[in-house]
Amino acid sequence: MVDLSGDLVAGHYAATGAVFTGRRNLFSLEAGNEHHIGTLVSGSRTKLQRFDEDCDKIVRGLAMLDANDEMLSALKALSALPINKSWSPAEITARDLARSVIAKVERRIFR
Prior knowledge:
This protein is an alpha+beta fold and 111 residues long. It is 47% helix and 19% strand. It has helices at residues 48-67, 69-79, 89-109, and strands at 8-10, 13-17, 23-28, 35-41. The protein has a 4-stranded antiparallel beta sheet with strand order 1-2-3-4, with helices on one face. The radius of gyration is 19 Å and the shape is elongated. The two termini are 30 Å apart.
């Protein structure tokens, strides 16, 4: 079991401990745009390890979305390319893969 009782940081996001057990403050620490996003509150007083793990996933997920923003833009540009006669089967497969990745990511983001 991993000890996640300290501050959780990934990218320019941080979830810091609060005065009350089972609460964490979520911050964006992007240079020039530092701000408090909100407070995460555990739904259980007995499952605090699970709460810490969930907070860690939230912070990592936010950082991942920022890091993947450029990748998603590149995939969208690739998926928009029309197929012409000079495309190899591998290029067509890559375009189709980009389209499927975009669909999966958008489903996860826009729930």
